[in-house]
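1st attempt posting a full record on here, be nice pls
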Amino acid sequence: MKRTISRLIVLAIGMLATDSLFAQDGLQWAKDGNSYYEMTDKGIVQNVPKAPATVVLTKEQLTPASSKSALAVSSFSFSEDDQKVLLFTDTRKVWRLNTKGNYWVFDKKAGTLKQLGKGRAASSLMFAKFSPDAKKVAYVSEFNIYVEDLATGAIKQLTKDGNRKLINGTFDWVYEEEFFCRDGFRWSPDSRQIAYWQIDAKNTKDYLMVNNTDSIYPVAVPVEYPIAGDAPSPFKIGVVDITAGKTNWMNVPTDKVLQSYVTRLEWASSNELILQHMNRRQNESNIMLCDVKSGSAKSIYTEKDAAWIDVIQLWDEDYIWGGWDWINNGKEFIWPSEKDGWRHLYRISRDGKSETLITVGDYDVMDIACIDEKGGYVYFMASPGNGTQKYLYRITLDGKGKAERLSPANQQGFHNYDVSPNAKYAVHSFSNYFTPASADFITLQDHKPVDGESKIDAAVAKADKSKSTLEFFKVTTSEGVEMDGWMVKPKNFDASKKYPVVFYVYTEPWGQNVKDQYGVGRNFLYAGNMPNDGYIYISMDNRGTPVPKGREWRKSIHHNIGQLNIKDQALATREVLKWNFIDTSRVAVWGWSGGGSATLNLMFQYPEIYKTGIAVAAVVNLNTYDNIYEERYMGLPQERQADYAKGSPLSHAKNLKGNLLYIHGTADDNVHYNNAEMLINELVKHNKQFQLMSYPNRSHSMQEGEGTFMHLATMYTNYLKQYCPPGAR
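the predicted structure (as tokens):
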């Protein structure tokens, strides 16, 4: 789960440019890795290093015969033989991302553009993809899987029992949110079969959101949503023959009472699947091979952890699993593990009987950039010694080498790399807190720009550190916990005076605030300029946040959300308040989602410290949030209800002393609005005065509705200025 703010808000603070050179995921590498494609105003263009760009699909070719304008393409992909292009258009949002829309196929040889899914509802197709032999396309529509023959246009429905409560080929809300599972089917290598998930949500209760704004009579909007303590929706893994249309189910073991999860699934060969099976507590992972004919499943690699096991190898919130990392002709695969105290990469044999540690040392692998088996290297991101930064390293795949940093030594900060499949080229982006984001197209081996001119070098040369009002610091609490933080000081700062301080918090396992990248320290919700107005703005990362400081740092929060993270923040704040230029009578804290929960807990558990709080879309009662997230980090509430109660702001609301503004959207399908009403009741019960703003029919990110963001920012800013006045004294 990621109780984080939407990508829209990331855009608002100008940080997206650190992630990619191109907007809207427009970059796509050619299969040989020697060029890349992108969508431009000319159409789909192929870029070859040191050569003019070539238009491979013009605007005219993207224009249907029945239309005067070209398709507005959101994304595209090529068939294995590169002769056909699959185009995704007219997209619609499903939970977090736009995964539903229309699909078209352009055939290069025939010069034809045809829409798929004839007879299906408009913008109802999901996850369409070519078969490996490029003769067919499979997709999901209205919870069933279809396959369409590109030569004849014949459409075959492979599953026929799908509905909102029996989901084929895609997932329910909680699988998507917490496991990043969206595309729920896979073509076999021989193009004859499709493997897929089926999620049975018939016993999962609906959360009912109420739409009071779009009609005179209120409309209930149901979302199947298993809260902490509810058994997960049972899964099945099926393999359907596209000719016979018959599904053979895999015999993946599960606890019939507690249930379990299949979090990853790929084909290991034309007759075998490989999957990751997790128990409900998510502290045991089994990698399994399934024979698609017999359905038999055998475990080849088991890992256990006293806390939990992460199901992905990245901390990037926009990451989508890209497939199993096979090497050695399918005899081994690369797998991450924290079993030695750090997140490292291992070579695991196909039978699971042997493993080789590849990365060695007291550092975490933050993510894999590329596996170059031909060259003998794995490229990965890490930041030994500084949890606020990120760099590219490589190490030999045999585990005998030493990690070699490739990111330039004069570029201290946050790096990202989109590496070509052959590890020859990469799009390299960089920023730090005083250097705006920029990017280069580079040759990876020498880390030099292809065209000889580095935009990053130019940005670094131009950057002026002295003009930044932000600085990084470390603070050690009275319990000996050292935390990283950043601080933005007021303009014309005078250390002899006292200033108000505003703390920005998240504090939970899906949010790292303290990163050395451009845009950090900007308060996107403040309608004005905080440094100019005279505020000190601070954020600190406590234990339990996903910082590359080792397993113990991250997993110490197990069973302790709402307790350990809150104590760390409060004790660190006490150290900060010892600084002579801090006005301890003007101390504010704010956060969104998990940060909203932390804001409430800090206000309620440490009312003597925090005088003003603004909490947005907060989980008030941990029992209301989804089972995958809460049970991963807190355990089952049936077994640890006391911890759930201690970690819930609701249990401490009676202690409120300061000024509180609480904000929530009534159509929040992530952190539901009943959290707000539970808090209201508890504060009313104890005669605790506060201010409330509920936004009708707005979701977790509150991006819907004309004028919403401006209203929210204005309210936030006015409240902060009223109860935590800016300026030196």
